[in-house]
Amino acid sequence: MTSRLDPQPLEWLDRSETRSFEFEGQHYIGFAGDSISSALLASGQTLLGRSFKYHRPRGAVTLANHDVNALFQSSEEPNIRGDVTPLAAGMQLTACNVNGSLAKDRDQIIGKLSRFLPVGFYYKTFHKPKKFFPLWERLIREKAGLGRIDTGWSVRRKAKTYGFCDLLVIGAGASGMQAALSAAEQGLDVVLVDENPQIGGSLDYQLVNEASAAVVRARLKHDVQNHTNIRVLPGHLACGWYTDHYVPLLGPDGIIKMRARAVISATGVMEQPAVFRNNDLPGVMMASGAQRLVARYAVKPGQRAVVLTANSEGYRAALDMVKAGVDVSAVIDMGSLAERGVWADELNALKIPVLERHTVYEAQGKEQLKRVVVAPFDGDKCDSRDAREFDADLLLMSVGWAPAAQLLYQAGGRLAYDSTLEQLLPQELPNGIFACGRLNGAFTLEQRLADGERAGAEAAAFLKGEPLIPALAACRDTQAHSHPWPIVDHPKGKNFVDFDEDLQLKDLVNAAKEGFDNIELMKRFSTVGMGPSQGKHANMNGIRVLAAVTGRSIDQTGSTTARPMFHPVPVQALAGRRFRPERLTALHPWHLDNGAQMMEAGVWMRPEFYGRPEERAQAILREVQAVRTGLGLIDVSTLGKIEVMGPDAGKLLDGTYTMRMSNIKLGMTRYALMVDDSGVIVDDGIVGRIAEDRFYVTATTSHADATFRTLSRHIVEWGLDVRLVNRTGTLAAMNLAGPHARKLLKPLTDIDLSEDNFPYLGLQEGTLCGVPVRLIRVGFVGELGYEIHLPVDAALQVWNTLMEQGAEYGIRPFGVEAQRVLRLEKGHIIVGQDTDGLTNPFEANMPWAVPLKTKPWFTGKPSLALLKERCQRSLRGFMLPQGYSGELPKECHLLIDNGDIAGRITSIAYSPSLGRYIGLAMVDQPLASSERMFQVRVDSGALVPLEPCSTPFYDAEGVRQTVDLTEVA
Amino acid sequence: MKVFDCPVIGRRPISEFDYVGEVRKPPMDADEASWAAYVFNRQGAPGLLREWWYHRPTGRWYVMERDTLKDEVVRFIDLEEVRYDIPA
Questions:
Q1: What pLDDT does residue A718 have?
Q2: What is the CATH number of the domain that holds A880?
Q3: A41-78, pLDDT tens digit by residue?
Q4: What is d(CA A662, CA A646) in angstroms, rounded to the nearest whole number?
Q5: Among A36, A782, B24, B35, which residue is least crowded by beta carbons within 10 Å?
Q6: Is residue B73 part of a domain?
Q7: Taking CB atoms and an 8 Å cut-off, how many pairs form between chains A and B?
Q8: How confident is the model at residue A144 (pLDDT cuts 50, 70, 90)?
């Protein structure tokens, strides 16, 4: 660890624990508390990565989670941010985005070609000739992107937790800590969050050597950590702002979804680079980055330094470097010495030369900074004729700051450019959003503390509903800390504005000149600010360049809003745990024990069929045949089941369903079809009458909740005296179907099952196997059938009894697939499969369910009255030709008529009862009304003929479901 | 994510609600054009809008008057106010 300094007063290292790791096949050692980058830098490894486009050498710049050119790859994870990711023992890392090795990246050649690759080159070049596009795409994809993803990874998830507080203070620097204390003193429940593993902010790296700061630091840290009203959360990044102060905090254990009642953003400022030739060489870094290296990681950033500055922070950084043993050759001040006060005197005492009104014209070196070329600077242009050179392996940039205002923008805050501070500052903040500290233009320690105090007090007043006189600008500095134009042109370019995307000054100038002169357009065309750092270094200079080219002000040029989440969040944290509840019926364990293959049906799990997966077809056949010739039993507990009670119950159902329900006789049921305002079918089921003022309604599995919701809204809307009970979960249901259904039930129930007492569509209450039940005689699958509704806790007992007693009739359980076939044979539609979001009852061949003349009103009636004569398509039955053995059509295959699409298949299945493939198709007019053969285009592209036919396919007269065949026989 | 200060049930996150759209009354004796307008057109201009919100866990309906420009709930409407009669 050749560049490791002696222990620093506030360092994050635990020197008692060394950690060894590998990078690019080399062995390294660091300390616990190191980041990956700091450990490498401590060992003298300054080349950390290659740039995205030109594969130029890059190093550490900020050590503040913005070093997007120092991304690392492990076997498990791509794009690891070396500047902030804690070093772990045994890490095996390589550089991202290199072809070969980091040291000998074969793609460096692209940098030599850069002058042939102007901005927009890819857009303009690689779209023609059209037939080459797949080739271009493959080549570019190979070169684009950073880390490699191993798709063979096992799933890793991090649970999300929920947090609540009165006030969330984001940023635990001087102003944030003071704001938290000020609000906590007012009795608020405060959460103080900081993305760094330790609180303190810039107090701990910029003001390390200041005696006055030491007192403040000790007081603030002690007080926030010991205040009963403050919870301190270091190591958590507030990565977005969502409505009503919902802020995701990304921490090592995943995301905390923090719900606050107000938010103070004390997120500080991000140091901005100067733009000059080769400003991207390893060794060129932000002054604050070098200060972080020294103070946090005790790493000496270089041997000989030049400091480029436009503010007093640069002077302070130069002094810090001297203290760390760095030989500071010169301080290059873009402004004048007179503005720097005491700092200039201190440098003078150390005999460090200061060149005022100069700037860095060019950095030189191959893989590492060797020399700095400086020249006189008039605030706009550089005079390279009077250039001077300094040997240096370290160049610090301290030329300006951009507010970390992402959260303010997301919350709807407005920032405006302040020409005194030469910085964007909050101008107008929405309710419950406050800002303080350097983000708000308070730069001296006194200003920052006062501003934090003010913001905390304002937040407390806001939350208590007390009168509030906002004084956002009260504590701002009166001196600029940023240079308005830290940019110098160079004939040979390579003066980067955006390190993420390798954008040079001329790229932005050209983009603006090509007409992309709006900040949003320029961003998308040039990709400035679209890399992993999301413009944290590039946007401010990009705006300055665009403003200069277009002759507009910074405010007129505008700024882009970083959408939440503004910082990359690992997918495992976003995904959280798997929260996809499944509903299981009371008979679920029985199904599993009896070999059912389960499938999802909405939120429910249902048996698809019973048998081994490889015997699917035979199993379904067996089940269908059991129902047609013997007996079948299916679990239909997933049906929606709703009790509708009260004097207006009939009125509610009349208004909600197409057919009249108020005149259903006691003990009878009726098919129920629900359409929406536009006449589109949304649900079907049955309505049965239990008593004069009491109905029982069923709904389809997937629409049950929506049907309950619609009924409950109509009660409110129409002012009805009705109560609803949703019994979907408390009642089980099963359907017993087949010629022997009555014979099986008879000895088990006290209900008179005779045709006279309990006809088709009847509903009776009584007991079955001693259990209170409702029996409904339905034509569900086209056989004699009874739907049995009963309490869930009795379901298994009744099911078992029926299976045992039914054995002599060959009873079988059947699943959803057999049910589909059985229903299709009867021509029954499935809402949502045979109908879509536009299908009305006329198209579904159900004009009988639309009593336009006899009912004055139901939801959707006026639409259906208009649609009746205007149907443009119709559901038709079809069969595959007898003996057809070619490729089978599938659902959603298109019908083709005279070369045009003329409909689609909605259902198709093999009918064991008919021995042929049958199906339904939604067919356009006039084909639907003709008796011509249909043609369907199958997967291979071939056209397969379909014979149109009428439905039902099976037992068209419906004899089987109304009469007990064995009794007839 | 939004939070509603509901009468009866207090502060609840929007994820517990279904949004069911603008409060409207069907024009019972409308001609074809105005019926079509009722079915297919919605008030899209920013401003005050009365909306149906359904709280799933309790099965309770709310009608909120919301400023859609500021995304702020102005008040909760008494459900009596949105009632209408249907022809029986």
A1: 96
A2: 3.30.1360.120
A3: 999 999 999 998 889 999 999 999 999 999 999 988 88
A4: 12
A5: B24
A6: yes
A7: 63
A8: low
State the total domains in chain A.
6
Let me know: does A416 contact A555? Beta carbons within 8 Å: yes
Chain A residues within 8 Å of chain B (Cβ atoms): 242-244, 246, 259, 651, 654-655, 677-678, 705, 708-709, 712-713, 716-719, 724, 726, 856-857, 862-863, 866
pLDDT value at residue A969:
33
Q: A550: domain range?
A: 496-571
Q: What is the dihedral of CA A452, A454, A455, A459, to 10 degrees?
A: 140
Encode burial over B3-29: b for 16+ CB neighbours within 10 A, e otherwise: bbebeeeeebeeeebeebeebeebeee
- Three-class DSSP category at A673: strand
Q: What secondary structure letter does DSSP report for A47?
A: -
Residues in B touching A709 (Cβ below 8 Å): 18, 20, 54, 59
On whether residue A595 sits in a domain, the answer given is no
Q: Kindly list the residues from chain A whose CB atom is less than 8 angstroms away from the CB atom of residue B66.
A: none
Cβ–Cβ gap A243/B1 under 8 Å: yes
Report if residue B7 sits inside a domain: yes
Residues found in chain A: 969
User: ipTM, 2 decimals?
Assistant: 0.97
User: B73 to chain A nearest CA, in Å?
Assistant: 12
The secondary structure of chain B in percent helix, strand, coil, rounded to multiples of 5, reads 20, 40, 40
Residue B51: inside a domain: yes
- Determine the structural domain holding residue B49 and report its residue range: 3-24+43-82
Closest chain A residue to the Cα of B56, Cα to Cα: A709
pLDDT tens readout for residues A187-209: 999 999 999 999 999 999 999 99
Verify that A132 and A118 share a domain, yes or no: yes
Residues contacting residue A471 through CB under 8 Å, at least 6 positions apart: A454, A458
Average pLDDT over residues B22-44: 92
Q: What is the pLDDT of residue A850?
A: 96
Say whether pLDDT at A965 is over 60.
no
A769 lies in some domain: no
The answer to whether A441 and A455 have CB atoms below 8 angstroms apart is no
Question: Across chain A, which distance is largest between two alpha carbons, in Å?
Answer: 119
| Other Cβ atoms within 10 Å of A850 Cβ, number | 23
Q: How confident is the model at residue A155 (pLDDT cuts 50, 70, 90)?
A: confident
Quote the CA–CA distance of A894 and A888 in Å, as a whole number.
13
Q: Helix (H, G, I), strand (E, B), or coil: what is residue A584?
A: coil
Which residue on chain B is closest to A708 by alpha carbon?
Answer: B59
Mean pLDDT for A137-165 is: 81
How many angstroms separate the CA atoms of A400 and A274, rounded? Answer: 8
Phi/psi for A262 (5° steps) reads -155, 160
CA-to-CA distance for A653 and A149, rounded, in angstroms? 56
Question: What letter does residue A535 receive in the DSSP assignment?
Answer: T
- Closest alpha carbon within chain B to A726: B59
Residues 26-55 of chain B with CB under 8 A from chain A are 26, 28, 30, 32, 35-36, 38-40, 52, 54
CA nearest A763: which of A748, A750, A779, A778?
A: A778
Residues A65 and A84: beta-carbon distance below 8 Å: yes
Phi then psi for residue B83, to 5 deg, are: -70, 150
Beta strand A230-234 with A681-691 is: unpaired
Task: Report the number of distinct structural domains present in chain B.
Answer: 1
For residues A277 and A298, membership in a common domain is answered with: yes
Q: What is the CATH number of the domain that holds A26?
A: 3.10.20.440
